[in-house]
Write a structure and sequence with these properties.
Elements lengths: L1 H12 L9 H26 L2 H23 L2 H10 L1 H29 L1 H8 L2 H13 L5 H19 L4
Helix pairs in contact: 1-8, 2-5, 3-5, 4-5, 5-6
């Protein structure tokens, strides 16, 4: 239901049809698919080893693929711009890299291992809502009525999935 809801939201908020999907849409779909499989596997591994080991080993294993793709696709002018801005930008960039994208996963995979993927992953579904909230509050993004409607619809879907019995 969530996937269908996102597709409907995309169709209603863009000028393109379902058949006008581009390479970026396909790449996003593959990322969600592969990310979901990695997410589930990480939760299973979280039962056998500590959370910090799960994320660190996943980074080590993915390194041979990530480094070449990063070198090919990364726009290094952004990195130079951060360095030229101020020490504050470098501190914030470092904070995001270390805490949000590494150390946060230590606790996340530990929690997946303790509580189970199905239960704990439901909490992670609230991340898009926080992203919307902070983009409106701090970046001046506009929140449309249709966005609020679909956010509420996703909340209903998540709540319903938690309440339904597995058959």
């Amino acid at each position: 239901m969530g996937f269908i809801t996102v597709i409907i939201f995309r169709l209603l908020t863009t000028d393109s049809s379902i058949w006008d999907m581009g390479l970026g849409d396909l790449a996003l779909f593959l990322c969600v698919l592969l990310g979901g499989m990695g997410y589930a596997q990480g939760g299973i591994l979280g039962k056998r080893m500590r959370g910090w080991r799960v994320i660190c080993w996943s980074l080590v294993i993915s390194l041979p693929l990530v480094v070449p793709l990063t070198l090919i696709n990364f726009d290094f002018t952004h990195l130079a711009q951060i360095a030229d801005d101020s020490p504050k930008s470098i501190i914030l960039f470092t904070f995001l890299c270390l805490f949000n994208n590494l150390i946060g996963f230590f606790f996340f995979y530990e929690g997946l291992g303790m509580g189970g993927v199905a239960r704990v992953s439901q909490i992670d579904l609230f991340r898009p809502f926080l992203t919307f909230f902070f983009s409106v509050a701090f970046l001046g993004e506009k929140m449309s009525v249709i966005s609020v409607f679909f956010l509420l619809l996703i909340i209903v879907i998540v709540y319903s999935s938690k309440r339904s019995k597995i058959i």
